[in-house]
Design brief:
Oligomer: single chain
Structural class: alpha+beta
Number of domains: 1
Distance between the termini: 28 Å
Radius of gyration: 14 Å
Number of strands: 4
Largest sheet: 4 strands, antiparallel
Shape: globular
Strand order of the largest sheet: 1-2-3-4
């Protein structure tokens, strides 16, 4: 793989990979064109959504986004942005804002990620 500016990487073929930080920037860019839906407690809402449908692609992506927010690392394909429906995109933006504001403790984030991963393991994912 060759590294390019802004954390952008091109893999073999045409799959465009983004770092966790660059992926968040792209999510914000896409979200600015859509309506902002209020999300009360986005961390709890994300875990609830994952637990309700742990095998869905959006749930798996949401779990990866939680992990990326906690650990500030990871890689995402640009195309994964399109996999998020409007409600989930709004939730992800709210998660990013809550994380940046530091209103939830690291322990709460880790517990949420553990619950999301446990739900997916239970679903065979």
């Amino acid at each position: 793989m060759s590294e390019q500016s802004g954390g952008l990487q091109l893999a073999v073929g045409t799959t465009e990979l983004l770092s966790a930080v660059r992926f968040q920037e792209e999510l914000r860019r896409v979200a600015r064109f859509g309506p902002r839906l209020p999300v009360g407690d986005p961390l709890a809402a994300a875990v609830r959504r994952i637990e309700q449908n742990p095998a869905f692609a959006q749930s798996r992506l949401l779990t990866r986004i939680l992990a990326a927010l906690i650990h500030q690392e990871g890689e995402f394909r640009r195309a994964e942005i399109a996999a998020l429906d409007a409600d989930t995109l709004a939730m992800v933006i709210a998660l990013m804002e809550v994380h940046a504001a530091g209103t939830s403790t690291r322990e709460e984030w880790v517990d949420a990620l553990d619950a999301a991963r446990a739900a997916q393991l239970g679903a065979g994912g």
